[in-house]
Amino acid sequence: MSNPETAPDGASLSAMTAAPPAKKLDPAYYNWSSTFSIMLGRMTGSRDVDLEEKYFSEMDELKADTICKRCEDNRSYLLQYSPIVKFLKDEVGKLGGDLNDKNILCRMCTNEQSGGFSLDHGILLCANKFRNRGHQEDTMAHEMVHAWDHLKFKVENENLRHQACLEIRASTLSGECRFSREFFTKNQWRITEQLQHCVRRRATLSMMARPGIKDEAHAGEVVNQVWEGCFKDTRPFDEIYK
């Protein structure tokens, strides 16, 4: 991340362990999306909480267990066999962090995100949002890039430029914007600068959910402000993963 507002940081990921939920409904149903929604300012009032509780009360418990088990099995497989996941796990380890099955957690989610990251809690995988193992691999890699960045750089949560840089790097380096995924799953038919177009689109959408962003135009403006340096910075990779 070559944004001059960021700098190497000696932070530790030792705190990145699974914290117990403040309000426990059922282990299979506990939804970290509420944690991340609050962190990103997405929840606007008690009505949202009521809707989430109603959702969980109506969920089929057997289905939730099955979906989360599949996510957990894929997580274990990817941690052991996925080249990009293994590489990022090792790189996070070099910075003093430890990503494992205790802080990479599969949960049922009510919103459209496929995952999330918190330095205090770890990585959230939205088990019911994955199309297949490849989609889960992309999401794990995306959030692991966030983990690496938070350990490597002094990231300010309220600094929109910092947050835009994080999203640019995660979409660029995770593999989620590779041509085959965009072509077959997103119906994106661009041949020239496909990667750049995808990264800009995903980073802008992510920024629109953050407090302080007025609208899509504002989100795109912030992304453009840091685009050049952040898109070209491929650390910890030697080049963009394809």
UniProtKB/TrEMBL annotation:
EC number(s) of the enzyme?
Answer: 3.4.24.-
Q: What is its main location?
A: mitochondrion
Identify the InterPro entries for this entry.
Peptidase_M76_ATP23
Q: Which GO terms describe its biological process?
A: mitochondrial protein processing; mitochondrial proton-transporting ATP synthase complex assembly
Cell location: Mitochondrion inner membrane
Superkingdom classification of source: Eukaryota
GO CC list: mitochondrial inner membrane
- Pfam families for the chain: Peptidase_M76
What's the family? Answer: Belongs to the peptidase M76 family.
Identify the PANTHER family for this entry: MITOCHONDRIAL INNER MEMBRANE PROTEASE, MITOCHONDRIAL INNER MEMBRANE PROTEASE ATP23 HOMOLOG
Q: What is this protein called?
A: Mitochondrial inner membrane protease ATP23
